[in-house]
From TrEMBL:
Residues 24-275 form the EAL domain. It comes from the Bacteria. This is Diguanylate cyclase. It comes from Erythrobacter longus.
Amino acid sequence: AAKDRGRGTCVVYEPAMREKLEDRSSLEKDLESALEKGQFSICYQPIVRDNGDEVMCFEALMRWKHPERGIVSPEIFIPVAEECRLIDRLGAWMLRAACSEAASWSDDVKLAVNVSTLQMSDPHFLQTVAQALAASGLNPNRLVLELTESLVLEMDAQIEQLLQSLQTLGVSFALDDFGRGYSSLNYIDKMDFSMIKIDREFVQAAAAGSQRSQAVVSAIVALAQSLEIDVTAEGIEQEEQAKAMAELGCNCFQGFYFGRPQRNVRQFAENSAPLAKRAAA
Ligand code: C2E
Ligand code: MG
Ligand code: MG
Ligand code: MG
């Protein structure tokens, strides 16, 4: 870096750094018009209960088809949208579109929508959710908002009030990516989550035998069971991982093994390895 070069040299940007910055600002520019151009779509990934026979929920995952770059991952464009504050409009589009699709699914299947912590400070967020529900006719009890631990750090009276109002509408909350952040257990009873989702990397470590990860999963499961909260193991790619996590007490599962994110939820059963296996037996 510049400071390693000693006095007298002045390096403002490494070329790679400049490229990254330019890339980011061009992404930002394209993001601004992507909504109007209809470049976003939604894939749905199942969350199954127990042995995988029952889909309890589909999680909506945003996809951006960029005209030159092709499919851009949400891991790339969501942070950009957050930084330039487009996330509120993007999130509102997501809520409206996903609720209206989910309204035509079977009544006992829920819809989970990811919500950035930043959106929770948008003064219109409550109204956005209420309008998405009203316009689609989706029963509010079927909507789950996936929040992350970073919300806990931002928690203030206003956000507490918002969570309360959302709950009054009938909406519930899942704690996403548990194990990725600072993973403190002591706020879980305060926030009234109906589900805790254990992050993929944590699940894969626990399933591979990491005793440390297993101990944390067991602790979270014990707490969740006493509060009647579902625990989902994310990122299940193999049957053995599902078994290992079930043994640790997880009662819900999500991952490529049970079903990849896909456009059409009705095709899910055909593309799910465990369901196909059982149908063939
Ligand atoms: P997430 O909410 O934790 O979603 C799970 C991610 O893991 C998805 O990636 C999914 O495709 C991937 N995944 C699921 N099962 C497996 C598996 O078995 N193996 C592996 N390797 N991966 C698996 P995706 O769709 O790329 O989304 C990445 C993240 O972007 C999401 O993580 C979420 O944090 C964020 N995101 C996606 N859509 C939205 C959105 O509409 N709003 C907001 N705020 N964030 C979103
Ligand atoms: Mg999620
Ligand atoms: Mg997750
Ligand atoms: Mg995750």
